[in-house]
Amino acid sequence: MSEFDEAARNGLSPAQLEEVLRAVGAARYHNRHPLHHQMTSGALTKGQMQAWALNRYSYQSVIPRKDAAIIMRSENPEFRAEWRKRIEDHDGDDGWNGGIARWLKLATGLGLDADMVKSEKLVLPATRFAVGAYLTYCTNRTLLEAVASSLTELFSPVIISERVPAMLAKYEYVTKDILAYFDKRPALASRDSDFALAYVMKHANNAEKQQAVINSLVFKCDVLWAMLDALAHAYGEKGNIPPGAFVPEPA
User: Fold this and answer.
1) pTM assigned to the model
2) pLDDT in tens, 14-35
3) Are 140 and 207 in contact (CB under 8 A)?
C-alpha cells in the first residue's frame, strides 16, 4: 500500500492536488535511488554505465508508442495537436533525428554497438517487463490516468541537473557531445509537464479522479524505480546478470 492511498478521500482543491503530486515526486522519483547516487558520485564502472544506457534506450524507444496510444484515446483535436509534439520530439521528422537518435548517440558514445542497442535483445527481462507495463497502462487505463502518468516530467529537470554535470566531471570518457540528448530535455519536459498538469487540474474534478491521478504518478515512479532496481541487481557487486542479457567487457 502506498503512503498516498486515500490522499484525496474528501476531495482536494487544485492547489492541494498539485501539492500531493509534487510530494509523490519528492518521495518516489528515481533521483532518490541508490544507483543514481552512485552514478553522480562517479562510482559506476564503464560497463555499468553501458548497461544503464542500453536499458534506458528500451524505455526511450517506447515513449512515442505510448504517446500515440494516448493520442488515440482523445477526441479533442487541440489535445492531440499538443500531445503530438512529444512524438515529434522523440522520433524527429524522419524517424531518426529526434530524442531517440540522441539517446542512441549516448549509448554508442559509451562504446556500445548501435545495431545491438536498437535491437533491444540484450536488455534485462525486468526492464522489458517494466517498459511493457507502462505501455499497457497508457493503452488500457483512462485518458486522465495515462496523462497523469507522464507527470514524472515535473521532476525530470532536477535529475538532469544532477546527472549531467556529474557525468562530465566524474567520467573521463563522457563528453558533452555524447550527452546531447539532455540539451533540450529540461525545456521540453517543462513544456510537456505544464500542459499535462493543467489537463489533470481541469479534469480531476472529484475525489475519485484525483486519487486515480495520484495513483498513476505513483505507478510511473515505480516503473522508473524498478528499472534501476533491476540494473543494481544485475550489475551490482554480486553480478546477477540473467541469461541472455548484456554482459560488460571486463574492466
Assistant:
1) 0.95
2) 999 999 999 999 999 999 999 9
3) no
With beta carbons less than 8 A apart as the criterion, state whether 139 and 69 touch. yes
Q: What percent of the chain has pLDDT above 90?
A: 92
Residue closest to 86 by CA, chosen among 120, 62, 117, 103: 62
* Angle, CA 134 vertex, CA 113 and CA 187 arms, to 5°: 75
CA–CA separation, 157 vs 167, rounded Å? Answer: 15
Nearest to 220 by CA among 125, 156, 124: 156
Which grid coordinates are listed for 206?
472529484
How far is Cα 50 from Cα 108, in angstroms, rounded to an integer? 9
Could you tell me the pLDDT band of residue 166, with boundaries at 50, 70 and 90?
Answer: very high
Q: How far, in Å, CA of 219 to CA of 49, rounded?
A: 25
Task: Give the model's pLDDT for residue 115.
Answer: 98
Average pLDDT score, the chain = 96
Copy the grid coordinates of residue 192. 510537456
Alpha helices in the chain (DSSP H): 14-28, 34-41, 46-73, 77-91, 99-109, 114-119, 125-140, 143-149, 156-170, 181-203, 207-235
Backbone phi, psi, residue 237, to 5°: -60, -35
